[in-house]
């Protein structure tokens, strides 16, 4: 099987697969594969927003400390291989094809109704075990409790990033219901790191769950945070007396950095003692995730792209673009029907002078004319024409912000923005 045949096979599975109410389906697959996940150490990361950034920061620091570090994220932005990395390098096409060749008869025999995400997770576990990773930073997909990544048994840390309303049809229609799903990754006597700035009920639920499972509970002490700079050129801050910076933009990236810092010191205490402040600084400062407040062009016009796709992400993006001294502010926007897109657009529309709205770039997109109605000045376009139209509206002194879905970010990169 070559890479094209392998990708065709992976893409033959649906995004969600047949619904599950336990992990038995994925456990059967793992058992048939020899349970490769049991050969690995993990840091498990769940949450609504910030998972990818925290994962990248933590993985970068562990690599800097000399550990062979696997990194599993979703979704991909440029190529499928983005999701499975070791020491910052994507899984090679030939390794991916070889693993799928071996995996296919097992899946065909056991589980033709599994999800594309389960297939991808299985590929990742096989690859990381074969390459003998010292540790894997594992981002959960949807939720936590019933997410197939939750097959792992004793993570070195369970990390919960910012929680807000998302995937409500599957995870629940309240913050507390969603938080219960995310808390499902907490395991007996495994340390828990909770991101700061959580809603009170989220913090209380996570703390209770940690106590129930006899876990050390860690959350950043924001009293020991001093922000020195937070604008469109980056972030600089002091935390517990030590300087840090992030190249990823936005105030929310400081919270993500604090979460990564506490996670790294937690795993340092939990066996990975080569981790140093220098490694942590490097991981936090050099982390870059495509389409997370990513500046594509600095002028004529200023262009940035962000994966904000739910109310929490869009609110963080709105807070960021307010710091950018450019006008007018033009948005290229496309969103998915299964998100709370009305609330999300409500957070940002007041800061947008005009919007160019799209649909059809992925399944289940919101009808573009509906999106356009949410803005002071909204119009409809297609992928090919959206970028030049937004540039005309922004002029040389304005800014263009592309947001609403990571699928949109990926699609537009094929039409002119890299």
What can you see in these coordinates?
This protein is of the alpha/beta class. It is built from 15 helices and 17 strands. The chain has an 8-stranded mixed sheet with strand order 4-3-2-5-1-6-7-8, with helices on both faces. A 6-stranded mixed sheet has the order 12-13-17-14-15-16. Strands 9-10-11 form a 3-stranded antiparallel sheet. The two termini are about 30 Å apart.
What's the gist of this structure?
The chain has 418 residues and is an alpha/beta fold.
Task: Write a concise keyword list for the protein shown above.
418 residues; alpha/beta; eight-stranded mixed β-sheet; 17 strands; 17% strand
Number of helices: 15
Low-confidence stretches: none
What portion of the residues fall into strands of 2 or more residues? 15-25%
Rg over alpha carbons: 21 Å
Report the count of strand segments: 17
Distance between the termini: 30 Å
Q: How can the largest sheet be summarized?
A: 8 strands, mixed
Binned, the helix content reads: 25-40%
Sum up the overall morphology in one term.
globular
């Amino acid at each position: 099987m070559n890479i094209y045949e392998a990708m065709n096979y992976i893409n033959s599975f649906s995004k969600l697969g047949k619904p599950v109410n336990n992990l038995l389906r994925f456990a059967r697959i793992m058992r048939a594969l020899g349970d490769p996940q049991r050969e690995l150490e993990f840091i498990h990361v769940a949450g609504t927003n910030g998972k990818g950034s925290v994962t990248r920061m933590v993985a970068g620091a562990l690599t800097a400390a000399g550990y062979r570090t696997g990194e599993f994220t979703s979704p991909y932005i440029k190529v499928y291989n983005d999701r499975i990395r070791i020491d910052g390098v994507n899984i090679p096409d030939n390794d991916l094809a070889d693993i799928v060749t071996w995996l296919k008869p097992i899946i065909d025999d056991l589980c033709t109704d599994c999800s594309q995400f389960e297939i991808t997770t299985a590929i990742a576990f096989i690859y990381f075990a074969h390459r003998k990773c010292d540790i894997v930073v594992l981002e959960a997909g949807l939720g936590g409790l019933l997410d197939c990544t939750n097959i792992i048994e004793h993570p070195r840390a369970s990390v919960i990033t910012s929680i807000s309303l998302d995937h409500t049809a599957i995870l629940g229609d309240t913050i507390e219901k969603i938080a219960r799903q995310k808390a499902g990754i907490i395991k007996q006597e495994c340390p828990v790191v909770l991101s700061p700035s959580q809603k009170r009920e989220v913090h209380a639920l996570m703390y209770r769950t940690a106590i129930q499972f006899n876990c050390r509970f860690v959350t950043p002490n924001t009293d020991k945070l001093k922000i020195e700079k937070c604008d469109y050129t980056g972030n600089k801050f002091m935390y517990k007396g030590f300087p840090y910076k992030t190249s990823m933009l936005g105030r929310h990236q400081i919270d993500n950095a604090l979460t990564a810092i506490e996670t790294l010191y937690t795993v340092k205490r939990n066996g990975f003692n080569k981790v140093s402040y220098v490694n942590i600084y490097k991981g936090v400062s050099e982390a870059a995730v495509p389409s997370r407040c990513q500046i594509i062009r600095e002028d004529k016009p200023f262009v940035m792209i962000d994966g904000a796709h739910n109310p929490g992400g869009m609110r963080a993006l709105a807070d960021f673009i307010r710091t950018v001294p450019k006008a007018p502010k033009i948005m290229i926007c496309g969103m998915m029907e299964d998100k709370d897109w009305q609330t999300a657009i409500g957070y940002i529309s007041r800061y947008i002078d005009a919007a160019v709205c799209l649909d059809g770039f992925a399944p289940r997109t919101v009808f573009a004319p509906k999106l356009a109605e949410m803005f002071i000045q909204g119009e409809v376009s297609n992928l090919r024409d959206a970028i030049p139209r937004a540039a005309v509206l922004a002029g040389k002194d304005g800014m263009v912000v592309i947001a609403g879905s990571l699928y949109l970010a990926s699609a537009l990169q094929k039409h002119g923005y890299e």
